[in-house]
Design a protein that fits this description.
By secondary structure, the chain is α/β, with parallel strands linked by helices. It folds into 2 domains: 2-244 and 456-469, Rossmann fold (3-Layer(aba) Sandwich); 267-450, Glycogen Phosphorylase B (Rossmann fold, 3-Layer(aba) Sandwich). It has 16 helices and 17 strands. The protein has helices at residues 18-32, 47-51, 105-120, 140-146, 198-205, 214-220, 228-233, 267-282, 306-317, 331-339, 356-365, 381-387, 398-403, 422-436, 439-450, 457-469, and strands at 2-6, 36-42, 54-64, 67-76, 84-89, 129-133, 158-162, 191-192, 195-196, 208-211, 238-240, 290-297, 322-329, 348-352, 368-371, 391-395, 415-417. The strands form 3 sheets. The protein has a 9-stranded mixed beta sheet, with helices on both faces. It has a 6-stranded parallel beta sheet with strand order 14-13-12-15-16-17, with helices on both faces. α9 packs across α14. The longest helix has 16 residues, at 105-120. The protein is globular, with a radius of gyration of 23 Å. The N and C termini lie close together (11 Å). 50% of the residues are buried. The mean pLDDT is 97. The protein binds adenosine-5'-diphosphate (ADP) and alpha-D-glucopyranose (GLC). The site of alpha-D-glucopyranose has 14 residues, from α1.
Length: 471
């Protein structure tokens, strides 16, 4: 099968979060299983772009409303990532340093999607499926089905994967003319709550919709940032498929970002050395359990409660643990976390920013990874941490619920709590401190976690089944 993934992110080209990791891995494993998977994404001005060789495969001209522009499709020459990678270059619009965060993001991603369809429309053949990811690419199923110019592509099956339904890409109806002329009887396929809602449109128009875990799909029927009734209505075409992790990139035995490699057999020594490096770097006491948080400092991740959780833990449990935080996000949260540094007694530090290599060292050297998420469609951090022998401390929600079993339950290995509340999370920390003293138990939990299978194999098969069902 020929599968075209269209996405705003793809690791290592451009990554803002887990979407990048997934789109950087899934196509690779689909290719390994005998299919032809390709990725199309915007050409941002990234390091990867500058360091690799490219060839021009198509030049075209199209329009976003009354703005006509030229675009170019370039292809990475050496199949470096294990799949064909195509970038869409729109001069002045996409070639920027960051993936998101610009005032004209709607224009950027709408123009990108139009170019992708415009390019596919001149191919001599049709792909078996166009697989789009999140709201930035979710207008493609509509464009393929209802834009007059592309009617000859209307029978190409489309799949939308929802990595995060909080963000929907809302556009005012005054921007409806951005899209290539479309059948006005179909306006309802764009509309949700008096605006154009790209994610809702994708759910309505894609042939199949997947979410990145089973529990998240269930939750969306009750909590989907306004789209609950749509998920209920469309449940027949929705399916949950849990993400895998790229075990080539995330492997403590050969991770390119860390120097001290280890396996489940050498984990005691390996983790200790990595922890020592972290503690030396951040002025922390290596004798105490090290609890880390890695992620976006936003409400979805429960980051706003971290400052109170940390001070409460010191107050009620005592200074028996160290915390190290890596992330960026809400300025108030960043500021509160920075301020806590003043109170550190060699047991607290924070790194505000994005740092890929530090994140790997933290998965490798920490004892625990804290994830008090309010919403977690899948979550990759907990799977990375388990592969590196670090016990996840997660809230029972979405993909966290599907991947972590509390160590108090039969066959369990993590610390699981019900609410993203200061009390529940602090109680989890108390359990972590208690567990840390039981070295034998920690060792057996670590062994169990490091042998869990979070590879892409099963999920790849499930995606292929989904594609086949559309033929
Ligand atoms: P989300 O996509 O919602 O942010 P995921 O758990 O799916 O959450 O994926 C987050 C990814 O981003 C992981 O690879 C994690 O290691 C990485 N990450 C998040 N914040 C940072 C950061 N500040 N520095 C480095 N990596 C980060
Ligand atoms: C989103 C979700 C996260 C998920 C990731 C990859 O960013 O917030 O839970 O793991 O996408 O699917």
């Amino acid at each position: 099968m020929e599968i075209i993934h269209v996405s705003a992110e793809c690791y290592p080209v451009a990554k803002a979060g887990g979407l990048g990791d997934v789109v950087g891995a899934l196509p690779k494993y689909q290719n390994e299983s005998g299919h032809i998977a390709k990725v199309v994404m915007p050409m941002y001005r990234t390091k990867f772009l500058l360091e690799n060789e490219w060839e021009v495969v198509h030049k075209g001209r199209t329009n976003l409303g009354d703005w006509w522009f030229d675009y170019t499709i370039i292809k990475e020459k050496t199949n470096k990532l294990g799949f064909d990678l195509y970038l869409v270059d729109i001069y002045g619009l996409l070639d920027r340093d960051k993936v998101y965060g610009y005032a004209d993001d709607s224009e950027r991603f709408t123009a990108f999607q139009i170019c992708v369809v415009d390019w596919i429309s001149v191919w001599g053949h049709q792909p078996d499926v166009v697989h789009v990811h999140d709201h930035h690419t979710a207008l493609i199923p509509f464009i393929l089905r209802y834009c007059y110019k592309y009617q000859h592509l209307a029978n190409i099956p489309t799949v939308l994967t929802i990595h995060n339904a909080q963000y929907q890409g809302w556009l005012g109806w005054d921007k409806s003319y951005y899209l290539p002329p479309w059948d006005p009887w179909k306006w309802g396929m764009l509309e949700w709550n008096n605006s154009i809602n790209p994610l809702a449109s994708g759910i309505k128009c894609a042939w199949k919709v997947t979410t990145v875990s089973w529990s998240y799909l269930d939750e969306l029927k009750h909590s989907a940032n306004g789209l609950e009734s749509l998920f209920e209505y469309e449940k027949g075409k929705c399916v949950g498929i849990l993400n895998g992790i790229d075990t080539g990139v995330w492997d403590p035995a050969k991770d390119k970002y860390i120097e001290n490699h280890f396996t489940s057999v050498t984990s005691d020594e390996g983790k200790k050395t990595n922890k020592q490096i972290l503690c030396d770097t951040f002025g922390l006491d290596p004798q105490k359990p090290l609890i880390v948080f890695i992620g976006r400092l936003v409400g979805e991740k429960g980051a706003d409660i971290l400052p109170t959780v940390i001070s409460d833990a010191y107050y009620y449990i005592g200074r028996k643990m160290c915390f190290l935080i890596l992330g960026s996000g809400f300025p108030e949260v960043e500021e509160q976390l920075e301020r806590l540094k003043q109170l550190s007694q060699n047991d607290y530090n924070v790194y505000i920013g994005y740092n890929e290599s530090l994140s790997h060292l933290m998965y490798a050297g920490a004892d625990y990874l804290l994830m008090p998420s309010r919403v977690e469609p899948c979550g990759l951090n907990q799977m990375y941490s388990m592969r590196y022998g670090t016990v996840p401390m997660v809230r029972r929600t979405g993909g966290l619920k599907d991947t972590v079993i509390d160590y108090g339950e039969d066959g369990g290995y993590g610390i699981v709590y019900n609410w993203a509340s200061v009390g529940d999370v602090t109680h989890g920390i108390w359990r972590a401190v208690e567990l840390y003293n039981d070295k034998k138990k920690v060792k057996s939990i670590r062994d169990k976690m490091m042998h869990l299978d979070f590879s892409w194999e099963t999920s790849v098969k499930q995606y292929i089944e989904v594609y086949r069902s559309l033929r």
